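Hi F.,

I've been meaning to write this up properly since the lab meeting, where we talked about keeping a consistent format for the predictions we share between groups. The idea is simple: the sequence comes first, exactly as it goes in, then the C-alpha cells exactly as they come out, then a line or two of notes. No screenshots and no reformatting. I'm using this chain as the first example so we have something concrete to point to.
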Amino acid sequence: MCCQVRARPIVSPGAVVLRRMIDAIELPEGVRVRSVKGRSSWCLRNARFSTSNALASRGCKGCRLTSVQIRDAQVSDIPLLAYVCLQATGGIFEALYEGSIPGRETSLIVEHLFSRLNATSSYRNCQIFEAKGEAVGGLHGYPFDASAQDPGDPLLRADRYHLVRPFAELPPRSDSYYVSSVGFYSNQRGRGYGRQLMQEAEAIARTKALNSMSLHVFARNSPAVTLYKSMGYEALGRQPVVTHPLIRYDGQLLLMGKSLN
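Output, unedited:
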C-alpha cells in the first residue's frame, strides 16, 4: 500500500497502506527455475498459452520455451507501476487520489508516488516482470520499518484518511518485508507470474536479513488469498473494509504474513 500502516494519523501514502492485493495465480505445471547472472528466469514446459503468445524455441530439444526474467524497475516503468498499483488495490487509490489535481487523470496522479526518490513508494523499491523481452507486470515492496521515515504526501487529502483506517489498524511487523502491490496486464494473468514475483520478493527480504513477509489483501479477493496460503502465508488479523463507490471490494481486509526463518 502507498500509505503508512500505523494506528495513528496517516501522513504518508508511501508509508501507510494500500496497494497490495494481488492478481497472481498458480505456477504453471512443469516450470523449472533457473538463475541467470543474478536474475531469475524460467523454462516453461508443457504450458498452454494463447496463439497470440506463441513460444519461441530456444534450443531445448523436443521443447518450446519462453524466457522470463525479473529485473529492477527503471524510471520508464513508472506508468506500468501505476497501472499495477491501481489494479492491485481494488479501487483504494482511485478513492484516495481522484480529483487531487483538478483535470488530471488518477493514473497520472498515482505516478507521482513512484517518482518520489526519498520515499518507500519510489520505483527503486520495485521489480519488473518481463516475458519475451517485454515488461508485463511488477511488484512494489520494501522493509516496513523504512516507512517510518517517509515524507508526507501533499496530494493525499486529510478528509480521505478514513479510507485507509483498516490498513492502519492492521500494522505489519516492523521486521517484515512489506509487499505493497503486485499485478500484471490483463492479457498476462493466469500464467503463474505472480507466484514468481512473490518468490523474488522473499529472496530480496532474505538478502536484507528480514525475518518475515507481510501484506494486506481483501478477503474477497479469493485468487490472491489462495495463492498466499499456498505459499505459507497466514491471516494475522482482519478489519472491515470502508465502503466507498470506487472501492471494488467489501467485507474484510486481511493482514497476512509469513515467517522466513
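Notes:
The longest helix spans residues 193-207.
The first strand starts at residue 31 and ends at 36.

If this format works for you, I'll send the rest the same way.

G.
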